[in-house]
Design a protein that fits this description.
One of its GO terms (cellular component) is bacterial nucleoid. The protein is of the alpha+beta class. The protein is built from eleven helices and 15 strands.
């Protein structure tokens, strides 16, 4: 992902730990630098795997974070100036709640026609290096795998003004709720889509669709793999799933079928859904056929609607589907 601009500022607590000070870079990082490219690439990779909150700027008139960003994009202020201002505001916001230190990386990136701004607080850790005399010595390294504070703004979507788009994402780890609230306030972002809830609803809609269409085991498995594969690809890219794209992936012969089913059934899903990694990892479809019996169900039902007794080799279905129940009654 080519870097258009990048810069690093340093956050450091005062001796009494009462506030954070900013040591700002005078100018953006030189372009065409392999080390900076690698750093930003590693930060993107780590960021894409983390749970996130999604939203949009609340300050429609342009104040705070978005105001500085607008000034930069309009070439009214330089990258170094606006990122220093934003870092100083971050220092104030963080000092009210916790003492942290590290390097704040800002990276204006472009991939294809899409531009994004990635920002991340990167901590330093002590490692071991070899000096010119071939002796081991302490060597400081940036820890790009342990991000706790980071965000990314899809600048292209923001500038397009799409009312449905959730163009801002930020780390939202369950163990750092207060920190994510501070970051959201600093960004001036109102969280919109709840990624875990939306992902669960989407998977429920998919399960209902598979059941309604009565696909055979092989077809059901193929469509499940296609959905999970697409979702994981979007996760790696750090991008949301779109319902129309997903529909085409699930069924290439009828690319609009799943999309139309979702809309007609009114699941209340947004056009774009940020994939939630934990929810996806729990989703699988169990299928089996033997002796005239065919069984297929989603893995999240195991332990609730479906129980497996390994010792007795029994599968217990607690909530019999209505259609099957009516057939059983007529048989009696």
């Amino acid at each position: 992902m080519p870097l258009l601009q990048s810069i690093v500022h340093h956050l450091e607590p005062t001796l009494d730990g009462g506030r954070l000070t900013v040591s700002a870079a005078d100018a953006p990082h030189p372009q065409e630098n392999a080390a900076m490219d690698t750093l930003v690439s590693e930060l993107n990779d780590t960021y894409n795997t983390k749970p996130k909150g999604w939203g949009r700027f609340t300050d429609a008139e342009g104040s705070g974070f978005s105001r500085e960003l607008r000034a930069y994009l309009a070439e009214e202020q330089g990258f170094a100036a606006i990122t220093q201002t934003l870092t100083e505001r971050l220092a104030v916001a963080l000092a009210k709640h916790l003492a942290v230190s590290g390097y704040v990386v800002f990276a204006h990136q472009q991939q294809g026609e899409t531009q994004t701004l990635l920002l991340a607080l990167v901590h330093q850790r002590e490692g071991i290096g070899i000096n010119a005399a071939h002796h081991a010595e302490p060597a400081a390294q940036l820890n790009t795998r342990q991000l706790t504070l980071a965000a990314r703004i899809n600048l292209t979507q923001w500038q397009q003004g799409d009312a449905q788009s959730q163009y801002v994402s930020f780390l939202k780890d369950r163990g750092a709720k207060k920190l994510s609230e501070v970051v959201a306030e600093w960004l001036g972002v109102e969280e919109g889509v709840d990624a875990p809830t939306e992902t669960r609803t989407l998977l429920k809609a998919f399960s209902d669709y598979v059941e309604k269409e009565d696909f055979d085991d092989e077809s059901s498995r193929e469509k499940t793999d296609a959905l999970v594969g697409y979702a994981n690809d979007q996760l790696r890219r750090g991008e949301p799933m779109t319902l129309d794209e997903l529909s085409a992936v699930v069924d290439e012969k009828q690319p609009k079928a799943f999309y139309e089913y979702i809309r007609q059934a009114d699941y209340g899903l947004a056009p774009e859904i940020p994939p939630d990694k934990r929810t996806l990892n729990q989703f699988r479809r169990f299928t089996g056929r033997a002796g005239g019996v065919s069984i297929s169900f989603d893995s999240h039902l195991l332990g609730s609607s479906v129980e497996y007794d390994e010792n007795a080799d029994r599968l217990i279905i607690k909530q019999v589907p209505k259609q099957l129940k009516e057939q059983l009654k007529r048989h009696d």
